[in-house]
Write a structure and sequence with these properties.
Immunoglobulin-like; 20 strands; five-stranded antiparallel beta sheet; about 270 residues; alpha+beta; flat; binds 2-acetamido-2-deoxy-beta-D-glucopyranose; six-stranded mixed beta sheet
Length: about 270
């Protein structure tokens, strides 16, 4: 016969599993959208105005490796637009119903279509391309649709020059208007003077001057808009300025980070209260 200790022990184990299951259920309900065989590797894409961008959309493969599909049709639409962005059917592009907005600016990656990859190349991005796109695939291997949010911005890496004890950063194209912040190697904010000039298309060019600076000390220049951040490291060397810039993009996911935090906190609270 089981002792009281054993009963308590096993009850605890069962309770722990029960709570784990409830938490997993809550998380699953929170994060799962409608199920579909179609996915995108970047559901919130930021494009640089005037340049090309790839909107990702692909069929999840039932098995690993080079599965090939037949009868693939692909339709790209944009929310609020009656014409299509792109259509592919019966092994060829079908652009009869394409909206004039997109004429001559779209293509698929033809060599990967039969592997269920319906990614769209949108060329020479304009600010009117901003919006929500949907990609639908149907094929012998399944189908579904996914939506991709495209936002447009302008961003370019700054170039650095140095004269005497001044370090100058110049960046040609930014939109929306960013803020510019300089830091020394210890992360202390430095006082610089920055001027913004807006061209006829509304795009800002930036000249930011930092003074005084010393040779061989690394300086960091952050240019940050609501969508893009460029972090540049610049060091004045004997012969010029050595520089390196990395871009990061704001990922506006469907679940904002603050919501995520509150969901996590409530799960923890439920856990502790019981
Ligand atoms: C789809 O094709 C594009 C263009 O060749 C490629 O960059 C991307 O990685 C592919 N995506 C998948 C999931 O294979
Ligand atoms: C920052 O620079 C401006 C001029 O560029 C100057 O007027 C101001 O006093 C400086 N502030 C500090 C804290 O050095």
């Amino acid at each position: 016969m089981a002792s009281l200790g054993q009963i308590i022990f096993w009850s605890m184990i069962v309770l722990i599993f029960l709570f784990a299951a409830i938490i997993i259920l809550i998380l699953a309900l929170t994060f799962s959208g409608p199920s579909s065989d179609v996915e995108s590797s970047n559901r919130s894409t930021i494009a640089n105005l005037g340049q090309d961008v790839r909107l990702s959309c692909f069929l999840l493969l039932p098995n690993e490796g080079g599965a090939q599909f037949s009868d693939v049709s692909i339709t790209w639409k944009k929310e609020g637009l009656s014409g299509l962005v792109y259509q592919y059917r019966d092994g060829a592009a079908n652009l009869r119903d394409q909206d004039p907005e997109f004429r001559g600016r779209t293509q698929l990656f033809t060599d990967v279509i039969n592997r269920g990859n319906a990614s769209l190349l949108l060329m020479r991005v304009r600010s009117s391309d901003d919006g929500v796109y949907s990609c639908s695939i149907s094929s012998s291997g399944g189908g579904g649709s996914v939506s991709v949010r495209l936002r447009t911005a302008a961003f370019s890496a700054p170039t650095f020059t140095a004269t005497k004890d001044i370090l100058i950063a110049e960046a040609e194209r930014w939109l929306p208007k960013p803020s510019v912040t300089w830091f020394d190697f210890a992360g202390k904010v430095l006082n610089a003077s920055t001027t913004f000039t807006q061209n006829s298309a509304g795009i800002f060019s930036i000249v930011s001057m930092l003074q005084p600076v010393t040779k061989r000390d690394p300086y960091t220049c952050n240019i940050q808009s609501t969508m893009v951040m460029a972090v540049s490291e610049a060091t004045i060397t004997g012969s010029g300025v050595s520089e390196r810039t990395t871009f990061t993009f704001s990922a506006a996911s469907s679940v904002p980070a603050s919501n995520l935090l509150s969901i996590m906190t409530s799960v923890l609270c439920i856990y502790y209260l019981t």
